[in-house]
Design brief:
Number of domains: 1
Keywords: Isomerase
Number of helices: 10
Helix content: 40-55%
CATH superfamily: Divalent-metal-dependent TIM barrel enzymes
Largest sheet: 8 strands, parallel, barrel
CATH architecture: Alpha-Beta Barrel
Shape: globular
Protein name: Sugar phosphate isomerase/epimerase
Strand order of the largest sheet: 1-2-4-5-6-7-8-9
Order of helices and strands: EHEEHEHEHEHEHHEHHEH
Radius of gyration: 18 Å
InterPro entries: IolE/XylAMocC-like, Xyl_isomerase-like_sf, Xyl_isomerase-like_TIM-brl
Number of strands: 9
GO molecular function, one term: isomerase activity
CATH class: Alpha Beta
Structural class: alpha/beta
Strand content: 15-25%
Amino acid sequence: MLKLGVNTVLFGGYDLRTAAKYIHFTGYQGIELSSIVGMAEHLTDTASVAELKEIRTIVDANGLELYAIEAATDILVEANRERSKRIFERAERLGVPIVTIGSSGVSDDEEKTEASIRAIEELAQAAGDCGIKFALKIHYGQSIYNTRTALRLMEEVQHPALGLNYDATHVGRVGDDPVEAIEALKDHIIHMHIRDTLIEQLKIAAPPLQTAGRGTTPLPEIVRKTVEIGYDGAIDLEIIGANSMELPEVVAIAAESHGYLSRLFEESRLKETTGASVGR
């Protein structure tokens, strides 16, 4: 069953009540709370019991599920790792099963990569202690940035709480085939981000070109492979850079993306079950 949600970073210029209302209105089933300092903090690491209850009430009132939390930060800084652990604790209290964070570090810098792996190991243990999963986000420019480094991580840190967050726009921009990457990493992917961009460019495109179907990311092939491997976790639309956009523009991005992605998943499931040929 498709679990299609929205990362509230798309609604970074608005409060959670507004975000939840329009995420539900545009047809999504779930929500990924953004806890990214300086970008969108719909959940803070200091959220009180009362604040957590309010978040839960808002989400439930809109008929949504809490799929995940994104808490991107530089985990090589000890204070940031401690913040991450506080987010894990609040995820447990909210009943959120997964928190996703990138590796930090620098691509192909062995010293930084080793430090990142140790930090990830520490956070995996902390997540496990809270009874949740830590989805390491494969991220352009960081230590864990492609298929090879992700497989290395999963070999070196064999912790049951650790898995991978997959986003084709990160894997594809570093030269990996994003479809082949899903196949290679399928045993470790526990959460997915999805969006579009101009995949041939290193910089993520402006929000309108992150709208699913407007860029050059091979989303039809990515969706077909996701269905083919039997992935049944959450897939959250993650579109950055929209904080200054007017609310109707943000809602339009969510709605257009939902329509496009829902069609792709419906066609891919049909092809998988019947062998029928479907269009792009």
